[in-house]
Amino acid sequence: MIVSTKGRYALKAVFELAMADIDTPMSLNTISEKTDLSELYLEQIFSVLKKKGIVKSIRGVQGGYLLTRKPDEISAGEIIKALEGELSPSKCLIDEGYCDMLDRCPTYMIWDRIKKSIDEVIDNTTLQDMIDEYNKKNL
């Protein structure tokens, strides 16, 4: 299981929004410059993030994007899963009818533990946690 560029780039871009003034919209051009990501690719990402209620757009010359909530209320998991869907090391964990051997599968326990560990980390790490860690290392 590898998180795609959309999931990774979404987290990186939303982190930039979280680092900025919470009341000042940030343009995709600015986010593109700060992250070194294509503005066209960011448009696709932000379209999804807007539909999922993670960001909102402000029109006009001073427009751009804002977070819909405070950084301590948005998890990394919410952002990644908005683009990726559920993360899983095995399809049997997210598709109930995928395998008829779950009750006797010797490897199911491993895949289940891996998924739970991943979910634990990303669902309990907020943008604010990321900001705090970044500031600790870089300031």
Structure description:
This protein has about 140 residues and is mainly α. Helix content is about 55%, strand content about 5%. Helix 1 crosses helix 3 and helix 1 runs antiparallel to helix 4. The protein starts with a helix and ends with a helix.
Helix and strand succession? HHHEEHHH
Structural class: mainly alpha
Structural shape = elongated
How many H/I helices? 6
Lateral arrangement of strands in the main beta sheet: 1-2
How much helical structure, as a percent, in the residues? 40-55%
Number of strands: 2
Low-confidence stretches: none
Compute the gyration radius: what is it?
A: 17 Å
Question: Which band does the percent of strand residues land in?
Answer: 5-15%
Counting copies of identical and different chains, the oligomeric state is: single chain
Distance between termini?
Answer: 33 Å
Compute the average pLDDT.
93
For the biggest sheet, the summary is: 2 strands, antiparallel
